[in-house]
From TrEMBL:
UniProt keyword Transmembrane helix, yes or no: yes
Segments crossing the lipid bilayer: 21-39, 45-63
InterPro entries, alphabetized: DUF3093
Keyword flag Membrane: yes
The name this protein goes by in its record: DUF3093 domain-containing protein
One of the Pfam families matching this protein, by short name: DUF3093
Keywords: Membrane, Transmembrane, Transmembrane helix
Length: 165
């Protein structure tokens, strides 16, 4: 997609994969514990300096882990695009699609996983979407992507393949 086309897109689905809220509590407890340890029997600069440094590092880590954004866009020609970070996939090359439930996530990423596949997975997102590609110009056999709502993602991206159950 060119920059001019990107200005004329309609967003059909959007999801940001934030880390769970309780990870922020664990990070705060870690910062408090280590800062307290560093400040014992020392001047206050040790406590405050350590707290500020570790708070900045843990905030950066948690925000960078939460940076995955998944969107489904429709361009002016009617083609739907799945955008995961910097990667783009048109719906025209998807031959089959399925939602991978949390009970099958481990198997999907197990021994039969193809190393040439495109994968975006986070441990805190329990379900996934598998998109099998039919594109002779691309060696990638399929995309495997974590999603908080895989059925809605599939309905937005490949509605002609979605089966209502």
């Amino acid at each position: 997609m060119t920059d001019g086309e990107r200005n004329q897109v309609k967003v059909l689905y959007s999801e940001r994969q934030w880390v769970p809220w309780y990870w922020w509590l664990f990070a705060a407890a870690f910062v408090a514990l280590i800062a307290t340890q560093a400040g014992i029997n020392r001047s206050g600069i040790w406590f405050y300096g350590t707290a500020v440094l570790l708070a900045a590092i843990s905030t950066w880590v948690l925000l960078s882990w939460s940076g995955t954004k998944i969107t489904v866009e429709e361009d002016s020609e009617g083609t739907r695009w799945l955008v995961v970070g910097e990667a783009n996939l048109p719906s025209t090359v998807v031959s089959r699609s399925l939602a991978v439930p949390s009970s099958a996530k481990r198997n999907a990423m197990g021994r039969q996983f193809d190393p040439a596949a495109f994968m975006v997975s986070h441990g805190w997102v329990p379900e996934m979407v598998m998109l099998v590609l039919d594109d002779e110009d691309d060696p990638t056999p399929y995309w495997l992507i974590s999603s908080k709502n895989p059925e809605q993602l599939l309905q937005s991206f490949v509605p002609h393949q979605t089966v209502n159950t």
